[in-house]
Amino acid sequence: MRSATLRWIMVGCSVIIAFILVAQLYWLRRVYNLEQQQFKSSVLKSIQGLHGDIHIADDPHQPVKQLVDIVDADTYLVQLDSIPQKDTLRLYLSNEFEDFGVWTDCNVAVFNKYQQQYLYQYYLPAASSKNVSTPKTGEPLIKMGYHYLLLYFPHRGKYIIQEMSFWIVTAVLLLLILIGLSVSLLYLYRQKFLNELQKDFVNNFTHEFKTPLAVMKIAADVMIQPDIIQKPERLARYSAVIKEQTEHLQNQVDRLLKTASVENKKLPVKKEACQLNELIQNALGQIEPFISSRNAVVDFLPDENEPVIHADRWQLQMVIINLVENAIKYSLNQPHIIIELKNGDSDYYSISVKDNGIGIEQKNIKYLFKKFYRVPTGNVHNVTGFGLGLNFVKKVLDAHNGKISIHSVVDIGTEFKIQLPKK
Ligand code: ADP
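^ thats the input. predicted complex w/ adenosine-5'-diphosphate below
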């Protein structure tokens, strides 16, 4: 499975997971509302039952809804035409609560309209509860022009949540399953991504090393022929080929090892005075065989002020080599590279490497310095590499407090501009 397909699967799964979560929250909210309504209806039915038991209103047919005033979700006032006896009320009320499933505790108080105070108050533990302690009642007085029975349910919210425990446990389990699933998907995606990186790396590694080794083997085969000693120019040419290829391999290995060993740490820098014109010339000299093998035209515009900076010579040369090699590698026709060193007025020396190559799409530019990153079309143009060169360039510049910027137009060319602090 390609990583683009996997990415779409990941996006799809994330959308489904988000949808399931929202749906869960919506259903929990609905269940909570239903439980609230259920509770209210059970309390009203209990009051209806009480009305039938002890005739709290003179008219036995008076609808209970007219008798009840719901102050808030926890507090009910029931109009009384006559005041029931404390024990009778307790007995019938607890029976009714049990019959209609009001399984939570309640503070009961009876208000007398003449005295404008509670005649009595008590605590009714939850039906079937073994709770013998009697928490304080002492409800705030609500003054009314009629007798009433006050029912206050202090733990109604908790009770409703308890009633919903099945739904909550199911939702939490589902959430845990979804989290587990997301983590596994993420792990799978990462693994797939790393696998692809590794595969690309091995492919490119093989390609980069196979060609020079094959060339060296051919040169060596020629050199071990007994009559080669009679043809000194041939011998010299093939020795030069071997030297060239060995240097190329050495450079590649050096770069690989350096990049692999620094990881996220800062690059160790061995500073010395470097004449920048000369340093760039040297770097170009080192890749001269590569430049001529590609028929590239490389113009170097030095700075006449002969700028000198304190820097790690090898590292800066590798930066130039990387940029120029890339400029040549990623060209379509005959590469024409312009390298310009400028003293500038600012606090930085600038070196720009400009090519007439394939260019880089804007959306890819931000990833260029990531380790192992290669623009996906890189392989389409049949150019191999490890995706380590620019990462190394960036590390060298960071270690020298320098900067790098890229300006590129697809099919026209790219300019890499590096800036190195003068001090
Ligand atoms: P590589 O070994 O693949 O060349 P680099 O880190 O040097 O690795 O470059 C990363 C990617 O940036 C390359 O794969 C290529 O797609 C893109 N790139 C670098 N330089 C240029 C350039 N001058 N023109 C076009 N694309 C470039």
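The radius of gyration is 42 Å.
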